[in-house]
């Protein structure tokens, strides 16, 4: 145990995800001992981020303005909406440079264990956007796990009912991976989703 | 890449030791999305720690006062000084509850590769403390690695020259470990340091 505020700082860092007590201690000492680590900058950013960053009023992505940079971009294809769980999924998909449409960030996935039902997700906002009638395809890009699949199944029922074309990202073997190391579910999906070779 | 300050916050977290880009992103989003994470508290602590925490003017340990809590404690054995590299070593030794003397924190170890020589360590302050004549034993508790051993060798030459009794922490097999997994240097040290069984 350390004296007073050093221990407080260690405890506070230890509350962040993925940072155990040892890492928290290492970080606190780094901050204490590295004179060129800009502690004021980090402190200011923390406050600023909480004050300024909000969720895009259209798609739910993070932004410092009312609408995020993707929703504001007129060059994006307004007829495609890719539905994701979290803002970080938007970043992951943007990195592929394959998708030029818009996003819709649900803010999570259906998870009865965590008490998260459809009402806790940004589904009404999605339905409103689809009601405007411009959209020709909704791509469900929720995570390929239990919660993500449940959410995709729920949404696909909802969307086919209002006659919006829905698709789901392909599941299969990761590129660059070894077949023998693939788990049975992934391998099973790879079989199901096999394509004819031309 | 994210918009503006969110990316700035991710970058700033990424500059902390042991935090890669992925962890930095996870932490930033945790802060953004967890309303009950006290961002103001962390921001305040960061500034406060830099302002208030300093090094004990006697031993070099961290403290919020002129002298650290150990140097201020009259019940500690004033005739024993345990020399360590960093304040976190003090905490590690205190946890054993085996040592009731005082400490001296060098602020690092001799490391020619990193450009750290004896002059960069708090050695003059140690010599001053020894000059006061109360100390009957100096225990060298620098790390059992190349730099720590070099520092211990340097100090032991210096201290035996002024006729202060010096000891070094024992090296050997870690308690609870498996002999077969010990590296050869550790195993060699365990042989060197073997003790007669009574």
Automatic annotation (TrEMBL), chains A, B:
<dbReference type="InterPro" id="IPR000093">
    <property type="entry name" value="DNA_Rcmb_RecR"/>
</dbReference>
<dbReference type="Pfam" id="PF21175">
    <property type="entry name" value="RecR_C"/>
</dbReference>
<dbReference type="GO" id="GO:0003677">
    <property type="term" value="F:DNA binding"/>
</dbReference>
<feature type="domain" description="Toprim">
    <location>
        <begin position="79"/>
        <end position="174"/>
    </location>
</feature>
<keyword id="KW-0863">Zinc-finger</keyword>
<protein>
    <recommendedName>
        <fullName>Recombination protein RecR</fullName>
    </recommendedName>
</protein>
<dbReference type="InterPro" id="IPR023627">
    <property type="entry name" value="Rcmb_RecR"/>
</dbReference>
<dbReference type="InterPro" id="IPR006171">
    <property type="entry name" value="TOPRIM_dom"/>
</dbReference>
<dbReference type="Pfam" id="PF02132">
    <property type="entry name" value="RecR_ZnF"/>
</dbReference>
<keyword id="KW-0234">DNA repair</keyword>
<comment type="function">
    <text>May play a role in DNA repair. It seems to be involved in an RecBC-independent recombinational process of DNA repair. It may act with RecF and RecO.</text>
</comment>
<dbReference type="Pfam" id="PF21176">
    <property type="entry name" value="RecR_HhH"/>
</dbReference>
<dbReference type="Pfam" id="PF13662">
    <property type="entry name" value="Toprim_4"/>
</dbReference>
<keyword id="KW-0227">DNA damage</keyword>
<keyword id="KW-0479">Metal-binding</keyword>
<dbReference type="GO" id="GO:0006310">
    <property type="term" value="P:DNA recombination"/>
</dbReference>
<dbReference type="GO" id="GO:0008270">
    <property type="term" value="F:zinc ion binding"/>
</dbReference>
<dbReference type="GO" id="GO:0006281">
    <property type="term" value="P:DNA repair"/>
</dbReference>
<dbReference type="InterPro" id="IPR015967">
    <property type="entry name" value="Rcmb_RecR_Znf"/>
</dbReference>
<dbReference type="InterPro" id="IPR034137">
    <property type="entry name" value="TOPRIM_RecR"/>
</dbReference>
<comment type="similarity">
    <text>Belongs to the RecR family.</text>
</comment>
<keyword id="KW-0233">DNA recombination</keyword>
<feature type="zinc finger region" description="C4-type">
    <location>
        <begin position="56"/>
        <end position="71"/>
    </location>
</feature>
<keyword id="KW-0862">Zinc</keyword>
């Amino acid at each position: 145990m350390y004296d007073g505020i050093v221990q407080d700082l260690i405890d506070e860092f230890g509350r962040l995800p993925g940072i155990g007590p040892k890492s928290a201690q290492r970080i606190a000492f780094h901050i204490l001992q590295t004179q060129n680590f800009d502690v004021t900058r980090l402190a200011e950013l923390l406050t600023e981020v909480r004050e300024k960053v909000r969720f895009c009023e259209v798609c739910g992505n993070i932004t410092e303005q009312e609408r995020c940079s993707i929703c504001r971009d007129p060059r994006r294809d307004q007829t495609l909406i890719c539905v994701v769980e979290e803002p970080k999924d938007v970043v992951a998909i943007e990195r592929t440079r394959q998708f030029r449409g818009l996003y819709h960030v649900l803010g999570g996935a259906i998870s009865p264990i965590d008490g998260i039902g459809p009402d806790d997700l940004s589904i009404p906002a999605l339905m409103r956007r689809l009601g405007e009638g411009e959209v020709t395809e909704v791509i469900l890009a929720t995570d390929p796990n239990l919660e993500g699949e449940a959410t995709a199944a729920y949404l696909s029922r909802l969307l086919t009912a209002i006659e919006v074309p829905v698709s789901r990202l392909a599941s299969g073997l990761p590129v660059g991976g070894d077949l023998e190391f693939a788990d049975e579910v992934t391998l099973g999906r790879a079989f199901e989703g096999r394509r004819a070779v031309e």
